[in-house]
Amino acid sequence: MRVCIDGESHEGVAIDVTGVAGEELVRAIRGQDASPRVDCPTPGPVHDHVSILPPASFDRRDALAAAARALGHESATRDELENARAELAALSPPPVDMRAVRRRVAEAGSEEERLRERVAELRGRLRARREMGADATAVEAKLDEATRQLSEAETERIAAEQALERAERAAREARDRRERCLKLEDRVANREREVRRDLAAAVWDRFRSAVRAVPGNATVGATPGEFDGDRLTAALAVARLAPLDAPVVVDGVDHVSGAGAAARLLDAPVIYTR
Amino acid sequence: MLVVLLVVTYSQGARTTLRNSCRSHEATVVRRLGRAALFKETELGAFLSLRLREKHGDDVQIERTSPLNEFEAVPESVREAAAAYENRKAATTPYDKFAAGTGHPQPDAMRDSDL
């Protein structure tokens, strides 16, 4: 790799720099920042976990799983995971917008109700006029018109209700698919956990030896997951066991005296900043 | 009749919002059932349900449900069949066998008859 800082160029697998923030170097390694400039191989998935030591956060199982993959391990559960993911991706429940249909039913219902009252009222008026012996022609005409409108409103209300029922059936089917999606999401999450656990277990022995080889106080049991120590120690061990092409930034780790020592310890290219 | 609003969620996000709504409006919640809940049939119950649907769209199902009165809605033959089957002698007899040759309705016939 080659590191250019303020016009000065450094080359090698172990480079010491001063006065440059570790985070800046990480951005440069990822190609997100042009200055300082770092020419190096593209970082792989393990690098996400150990790009800078000490790491700001460290998910040990995730990091071990990434390291295991980089070492060529695979989980027996991988195919199941892929299948569940593919099935989930293929299942997109259709959108069902029932708002308009519901509104139509409600409006048709109130219109019908309004006309029904109107017809009753006109009937009353007609009866009253006839009893009085008055001319009822105008009221009769109004009643005929209202009755005709009521019959139309009934037809509309029935059609609206039928449309709503069809939409509700479609919504029910769409919900069946949503239900299936939820189950698949759960399955994907479970398989992902299993895969990570399997992968982490596959490199556990290497992790144990690596922890013993790096500085720091940590105890590792024989059973995968049995680890008692700080995240720097765990991250150093993962960086040591994983094959790394892109450089690791070591940001002033006290127990490691410079880039050369760090590169030997981690068996990886190192930029050491202090 | 004691009507309730049944709210069922179909995504993790909708489920989380429902859980939060239930927590902050305990008095409106009649029952919480995993990713579903029964709200009281009040304006607040409706408000909570509609807010959830506004946020999560089709991932939220809202139903207005009422208790079943079997004496009003269910034919006597079905009620009697249910009672008779639950009081049967042989626990392992499946219902269609149990019903055969008696006056009790067959599952197929019941399946195709709406209440």
Question: Could you explain how this protein is built, in words?
Answer:
The complex is a heterodimer of chains A (274) and B (115). Chain A has helices at 22-29, 47-50, 60-70, 78-90, 99-132, 137-202, 204-213, 231-241, 259-266, and strands at residues 2-5, 8-11, 14-17, 37-39, 52-53, 218-220, 227-229, 248-251, 270-273. With 274 residues, chain A is an alpha/beta fold. Chain A has two domains: 2-73 and 203-273, no CATH class; 89-191. In chain A, a hairpin with a 2-residue loop joins β1 (2-5) and β2 (8-11). In chain A, α3 packs across α6 (137-202), α3 (60-70) runs parallel beside α8 and α5 (99-132) runs antiparallel to α6 (137-202). The longest helix of chain A has 66 residues, at 137-202. With 115 residues, chain B is an alpha+beta fold. Helix content of chain B is 45%, strand content 19%. Chain B is built from six helices and four strands. Chain B has a four-stranded antiparallel sheet with strand order 2-3-1-4. In chain B, β2 and β3 (36-40) form a beta hairpin. The longest helix of chain B has 14 residues, at 43-56. Chain B is elongated. Chain A binds chain B through residues 93, 95-96, 171, 174-175, 178-179, 181-182, 185, and chain B through 8, 10-12, 57-59, 61.
Tags for this model:
heterodimer, A: 274 residues, alpha/beta, 2 domains, four-stranded parallel beta sheet, three-stranded antiparallel beta sheet, elongated, B: 115 residues, alpha+beta, Alpha-Beta Plaits, four-stranded antiparallel beta sheet, 6 helices
